[in-house]
Write a structure and sequence with these properties.
Elements (H helix, E strand, L loop, with lengths): L7 E2 L11 E4 L2 E4 L3 E9 L3 H12 L4 E4 L11 E5 L2 E5 L10 H10 L3 E12 L2 E4 L7 H10 L6 H8 L6 H13 L10 H9 L6 E4 L4 H13 L3 E4 L3 E6 L4 E5 L4 E9 L3 H4 L6 E3 L3 H8 L1 E3 L2 E8 L19 E6 L6 E4 L7 E7 L1 H6 L4 H16 L3 H7 E7 L12 E3 L3 H8 L7 E3 L13 H19 L4
Parallel strand pairs: 1-11, 4-5, 4-14, 5-11, 8-18, 12-15, 14-23
Antiparallel strand pairs: 2-3, 6-7, 8-9, 8-10, 12-13, 13-14, 16-22, 17-20, 17-21, 18-19, 19-20
The protein binds flavin-adenine dinucleotide.
Length: 469
């Protein structure tokens, strides 16, 4: 039994029962397969589980339907798999003193530790300490401050910094926006990037000591203790909704009926025309979903026999404190790498974001591994074959090609703020959207964003249902 005794895995091979048809509102359903719930949450990521746990704590009967055979979504902590003793395949850091995340960890009694980043860049064949200096940076910030109306960052750079003298600056900004925001310059909002740069908090970074998965387990437990149920391997493909009720249909022909449905799915999934259909369709919401950006990411985990990177004079400098994560950015195919802070760790993480990740998304894991080893070989001046021989475990985590994520995390386009206002409105008091992409605040695209959104949706449901005296 898992820590959550009520967690149920469905039986994919159940023969479909003979349907008995019943007319409910404006759609037909088979009652034979149908299960009832007060509130259904679709998606057991941080947003869905936070919503479910908050509702369950308030005494509401919640059923969570999750497509995968595990909970957590873009949080996935593994231990002793594929030669990796411990690794975060998705979210890894707490990017700042983020109130909802830290309050939840405190409530759960889960510890986290501080991490400080030491930045390096690869330039002219050498690793050098610090960020790559950007020529024209002050002028760029000044022009951004003066910008009267928002426009895509690419168009902004074309307007003000098209000259050859700015080629280096454009390259650096492209690399940063691709790598950090996992976004494309063609549509990322200049105002959003400006605000992100203004709110940067380099000092306060943390990691959950036992991995983010501990937080997911806690949310599951709260949900189950409150009488909730979490059903795995339930890929929802259609929701028929009306004023009276909503019917949720899964790919393997299960049907669930509920008074309310929370859609806690990744934006990348909702943006696909064929993954989840709403009947009747809600055109204003569909348009709004496309007005928010969703980036691309491939994360590569490499376990080596020894930490060869410590041989580099700059990168391996022993003077840094023990809680230092060393991070190097380069112009290679897989450009970014960082280390762990656990003493003796030989895990190196590679990161490829934005359009370059999108372009590689259909490549095999082996091909992406080879590109990664070649990039490392160029950065650390080591033979690629020798690096491969030292490899004791590896995993290419291609979130962009993952059918239940289809990308990385959200970023703002010019119309995103207005789109979020639309999507934050429940549809007929029946359908509610939750997920990191709906968060308003400085921690966009994070676990904090997902938790906040899940909590806010639950509060909205509870507030709406409070009887008026
Ligand atoms: C590689 C990577 C690194 C990251 N690093 C960090 C970091 O260091 N710090 C940080 O704060 N954030 C980080 N993030 C972002 C963070 O992981 C996300 O913002 C957050 O986990 C999203 O939670 P969510 O609940 O909104 O979505 P998800 O976690 O994606 O949950 C959605 C759930 O819906 C399920 N689902 C999808 N389709 C269906 C369907 N048809 N039917 C039923 N269920 C379905 C999915 O399987 C999933 O479980 C990272 C993300 C990635 C991809």
């Amino acid at each position: 039994m898992t820590p959550c005794g009520h967690r149920v895995n469905t039986h994919r091979n159940n023969p479909p029962s003979i349907p008995t048809w019943q007319f409910i509102s404006n759609f037909h359903v088979s009652t034979e397969n149908m299960k009832q719930a007060e509130i259904i949450v679709i998606g057991a990521g941080a947003a869905g589980l936070m919503a479910a746990a908050t509702l369950a704590k308030a005494g509401r009967k919640v059923l969570v339907l999750e497509a995968r055979d595990r909970t957590g979504g873009r949080i996935h902590t593994i231990r002793n798999e594929q030669g990796l003793p411990f690794a975060e395949l998705g979210a890894e850091f707490i990017h700042g003193n983020l109130p909802v995340t830290l309050a939840l960890l405190k409530e759960a009694g889960i510890s986290y530790n501080d991490t400080r980043f030491e930045m390096f860049h690869h330039h002219e064949g050498r690793i050098q300490q610090g960020d790559e200096p950007i020529e024209g940076w002050d002028e760029l910030l000044e022009k951004m401050q003066q910008l009267p109306a928002d426009l895509p960052l690419g168009a902004f750079l074309d307007q003000h910094f098209a000259g050859d003298q700015y080629a280096g600056m454009r390259e650096e900004i492209t690399a940063f926006v691709n790598g950090y925001d996992t976004a494309s310059l063609s549509d990322v909002s200049t105002f959003a990037i400006r605000s992100e740069w203004e709110h940067e908090d380099d000092e306060a970074q943390h990691r959950v000591t036992a991995g983010y998965g501990a937080m997911i387990r806690y949310l599951e437990e709260v949900c189950i203790k409150g009488g909730g149920e979490i059903v795995l391997q339930q890929e929802v493909e259609r929701i028929d909704w009306a004023e009276a009720t909503a019917m949720v249909h899964t790919r393997d022909r299960q049907v669930y009926q509920a008074g309310k449905v929370v859609l806690a799915l990744p934006l990348g999934v909702l943006q696909q025309p064929d993954t989840l259909r709403l009947h009747p369709a809600i055109p204003g919401y569909t348009a709004a979903l496309h007005d928010i950006g969703f980036g691309a990411i491939i994360k590569i985990l490499l376990q080596f026999a020894s930490p060869f990177w410590m041989e580099d004079a700059a990168f391996g400098n022993p003077a840094f404190p023990g809680n230092t994560t060393r991070l190097v950015v380069s112009g290679e195919t897989v450009p970014t790498y960082w280390t762990q802070t656990t003493p003796g760790s030989t895990l190196l993480t590679g990161w490829l974001g934005g359009p370059p990740a999108w372009n590689l998304r259909t490549q095999s894991p082996e091909a992406i591994l080879q590109a990664t080893l070649q990039s490392l070989s160029n950065i650390f001046r080591q033979d690629a074959g020798a690096l491969q021989a030292q490899l004791t475990g590896w995993r290419v985590v291609n979130w962009t090609n993952d059918p239940f994520t289809r990308g990385s995390y959200a970023y703002d386009k010019v119309p995103s703020s207005a789109a979020r206002k639309v999507l934050q409105q429940p549809v007929a008091g029946k359908l509610y959207f939750a997920g990191e992409y709906l968060y308003e605040g400085p921690a966009m695209g994070t676990v904090e964003a997902a938790l906040t959104s899940g909590m806010q949706v639950a509060e909205k449901i509870l507030l709406k249902d409070t009887p008026v005296a």
